[in-house]
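Q: Protein A?
A:
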Amino acid sequence: MFVTDLITRELPPNRWLVEEPLIYERYMHVKQIPQDMINAVIADYRGIEFIKNFDRDVIGYRITINKNFSTDLASVPRVMRAVFNVNGRTRKPATLHDFLYHHAKLSRAFCDNEFLHAMETCAVNRIESAAMYAGVRAGGWKTYNKYRKQRRSPSCGL
């Protein structure tokens, strides 16, 4: 679930700048924590940390999307924008997904599954969630690989 609001400023064309940190938290049974997330915390990835809980079998993780992160929200093809509103309930999940892809250290499947879960917590319609999830699974590889390649570049600076 998101514990803060998404505050953005539009940067034409089709870009938004996060103006205040956006924080996403998720809790689950210790045995269900994805290996990707464990690796991310161990490697001290910027913006990802574990959260302790009172129940010893439940643990959480927090992903903080910092101020000045640039997002296109949902990369919905122009033809589909009449059906999918990029400024609707998918704003936060899409920003989270862009952030996870941008850092490209977590697996693409993890990023896409977290996007789906975030849409569920934001009460995005099931049909819209399923369609957007199918879209990122089918076409997200191109963007993910672009960021992954940039991460390997010595001049990347991330």
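Q: Protein B?
A:
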Amino acid sequence: MLQASLDIPADKASMEAALEGLTRLNQVLLREAKRRGRPFPSLYRSGVRYNVKDGFAAWRTIPQIFRTKTGICSGLAAWRAAELRESGHPARVIVRPSLSGIAGRWHAMVRCDTGIEDPSARLGMPIDVARAKRVNRRYL
């Protein structure tokens, strides 16, 4: 297995480009697992939970997240976008400024044909809904 490390500028365009790469890699991994007869379950049925302790972890692929049963927004959004694409639905990972208030921190979500999905929130990330609406109104 090849391990890669990248220095990604902390701006919206760079983050979304890098997450597109992770999403496309996840598509390949989903297809390969299915071809081998050992498909991954859908993200929301996988038993995976958002874990803030993973917050500064390296971005991880579907097999890595599935193995540990935890993930952060980048990996969860890339998994969800990949599985939507593989089932024939348009999807891409988008980033918005994090609600943490820390400059240069981003939160990853999925833009799909039904709107915007936030896999992290669905999988256990605590969120201040009122604050999220105020912040995201400017960026969505």
